[in-house]
Amino acid sequence: MEKTLAINSGSSSLKWQLYEMPEEKVIAKGIFERIGLERSMSTVKFDGEAHTREIDIIDHRQAVLLLMDELIHFHLIKEFREITGVGHRVVAGGERFKESVLVTQTVLEEIKAISNLAPLHNPANAAGIEAFLKLLPDAVSVAVFDTAFHTTMPQAAYRYPIPNKYYNEFSVRKYGAHGTSHMYVSREAAQYFDKPLESLKLITAHIGNGASISAIDGGKSIDTSMGFTPLGGVMMGTRSGEMDPSVIPFLIENDPELKTAQDVIDLFNHQSGIKGVSEVSSDMRDLEIARDQGDKNAILAYEMFVDRLKKYIAQYFGVLNGADGLIFTAGIGENDRKVREDVVNGLSWFGMEILPERNVRGVVGEISTPTSRVKVLVIPTDEEVIIARDVEKFKKKTAFL
Ligand code: ADP
């Protein structure tokens, strides 16, 4: 039986999903959390049960070794070579990677070389890839880039209005992220609409801890809210999203705790967004509890969060010159009825109307009224299946070599 692993390494986590291919059957999935920190944990889920244990995990290489141990321990595989493919989510592919690629040593070096575009993620992605190359040298190893789907953006959208030199010599431009998710939900939306993707204009809202909005015309990304790095765009769990860059030198000059531009960027990446404004948590569920208890900072953080979502979605109605559908996905987009309601009601002028009885927890599919000019859909994202499918494509190609 052919088995494929889809791997998503974060800075301190490694999520995995084991598939039976080509059936796309999920055999098991899991996550290693708090890698490199105290009280690291492994969770393995299969047959409706979750098995969690606390275990020291120093780095991603060790997480990969432990993952293989877990698969054997839980009889999910008998031997390593049953895994014939491993697909890795890589956050930044720069201008070099416009689609998924077979991993070679050169590709691995190139992924490391563009780490400045995703300093939290690319080194972790590369560490995961390297560990698997050593452990499963015969498996087909594929890198799937978060930025690839956005390489169809026109220059007018992806260039920053600064001197050309900085694009030509330093590759400073908008790259976007969450591409696999935006691509997946836009394809799924076309199935719901029962129309060819090529005929649809869609706005996709991936709202999780990280969040980005995309404008998709005929299946191609033509604009997206994240920028040079995933710090751009809407407000997020711990990220500020869009800011006036003059705040950076101002803070360095005025706050003795912030000494370098990197200190400020770290502040914007890790201590800002919902966490920074609410002073409660970066997690939407915690925020909403505090908001409902009347906590002023939590109320403000929630209002700012919805405000930024509305502004970006409204922008993309302009970019697309109208849209057929707005798609909500990821942790908050899929589960948070109130965020969806507040965003859509605040944009009713664009021809969207929510159907309250459909806008409930756990809903999948349309949540707008039959007369709503723009359809509003909730579609659970599945980045892992796209990764597994891309591995499958390369397995077929390499079989002919
Ligand atoms: P990421 O993959 O970027 O870490 P997720 O897509 O898992 O993030 O989304 C995490 C966010 O989703 C958190 O803010 C969490 O509070 C929120 N979330 C998850 N479930 C719910 C829910 N039932 N109601 C509201 N928010 C939720």
Automatic annotation (TrEMBL):
Q: What class of enzyme is it?
A: transferase
**Could you tell me the superkingdom of the organism this chain comes from?**
Bacteria
Residues that bind Mg(2+)? N8, E383
Sorted alphabetically, which InterPro entries does this protein's record hold?
Ac/propionate_kinase, Aliphatic_acid_kin_short-chain, Aliphatic_acid_kinase_CS, ATPase_NBD
- Note the Pfam families from the entry: Acetate_kinase
The record's cofactor note says:
Mg(2+). Can also accept Mn(2+).
Q: Where is this site: Transition state stabilizer?
A: H178, R239
Its EC number is 2.7.2.1
**One GO location term (cellular component):** cytoplasm
Question: Which biological pathway?
Answer: Metabolic intermediate biosynthesis; acetyl-CoA biosynthesis; acetyl-CoA from acetate: step 1/2
Q: Which PANTHER family match?
A: ACETATE KINASE, ACETATE KINASE-RELATED
Its assembly, as annotated, is: Homodimer.
Protein name per Swiss-Prot or TrEMBL? Acetate kinase
* Gene source species: Lactococcus hircilactis
